[in-house]
Amino acid sequence: MTDQNGDTQPKQSIRTLLSQIIDYAGLFPPSQAAMSEAVLNFATYRNSNYGWMLGRFVVPAARLDEFLETASELVSRDGEPWRLAVVAGEDINETLRRVRNFNNANAPAIVCDLLEVKANTVSKIENTVKALPEELTAYFEIATGDAFVDLVTALAMMEQRAKIRTGGVTPEVFPSSREIIRFVRTCMAANVPFKATAGLHHPLRCFKPLTYASDAPQGTMHGFLNMLLMTGFARESFRSGVLEEIMEEEFEEVFTFDEKGVTWRDDFFLTNSHLERLRRKGMNSFGSCSFDEPVADLQTLGLL
User: What's the pLDDT tens digit per position in 261-289?
Assistant: First the structure.
């Protein structure tokens, strides 16, 4: 993977594509860090050279009090607000009660401004939206089976956002490229922005261990650059075959970043304006239990 001048400073296209892209989910598998470790990591990443890539701290609603007990001292020293993405529990009303109480007690120093909700029915979406406070943005992790189009339609009508699970800790939970493309194209056609979660530790598609255990199963992992750029080209109405090729690219030299945008295979170009739109109206962010891995890989590719 190259930039036009051969140097290693982040180009404007990289900054546009990756600004606040990673929601840090260190509490979740395969990392499953202790709360104290995850909070310290997040504080460290915020103040690093690559803090501009960092989004929110992802925390289950049931662990908000534990988070506060661990993070309060670090937050008071930081000066800048900490933003949280809260993963809802089964009882959405109880989750919203916890979030309201938390924000009332801790905003603006710490604020829960994003909610992640599992919703396999239109009624779950409707009931959640009715109860949502204005200051909370929700992402709905929806089923991709027979009800998928109805669920996306409901999200579009209620001006909500979607969430897709792109991996996990075993090979069988990784959706195929075609399944991801179907999700993205449907969301783009309906003007439904989305976030992704799980399995996107690396910039490019690769075959890697799926956990950090010595005997971890191995599998093909989707790349976050593949997915971002596929989303950009999907927004420009490229056909499915081209999108599948982008999702399955494993060689960095076919992507070239410069100050004006990114080129794929010398012939296909997304300008910085395209990249800004795909981030705002397409793939808003992705959750990762590691921040170090994506940064290290981007450095190896010469993009940071």
Answer: 999 999 899 999 999 999 999 999 999 99
DSSP states of the chain: -EETTS--SPPHHHHHHHTT-EEE-TTSTTT---HHHHHHHHHHHHTSTTGGGEEEEEEEGGGHHHHHHHHHHHHHHH-SPEEEEEEP-S-HHHHHHHHHHHHHHHTTTEEEEEEEEEESSHHHHHHHHHH--TT-EEEEEE--STTHHHHHHHHHHTT-EEEEE---SSGGGSPPHHHHHHHHHHHHHTT--EEEESS--SSS-EEEESSSSTT--EEEE--HHHHHHHHHHHHTT--HHHHHHHHT---GGGEEE-SSEEEETTTEEEEHHHHHHIIIIIEEEEEES-SHHHHHHHHHTT--
**Which residues form the domain of 43?**
2-299
Would residue 146 count as lying in a domain?
yes
CATH, residue 95: 3.20.20
List pLDDT tens digits, range 87-104. 999 999 999 999 999 999
pLDDT tens digits, residue range 129-164? 999 999 899 999 998 888 999 999 999 999 999 999
For residues 274 and 281, is the Cβ–Cβ distance under 8 A? Answer: no
Identify whether 304 is part of a domain: no
Say how many domains are in the chain: 1
Whether 267 maps to a domain, the answer reads: yes
287 part of a folded domain: yes
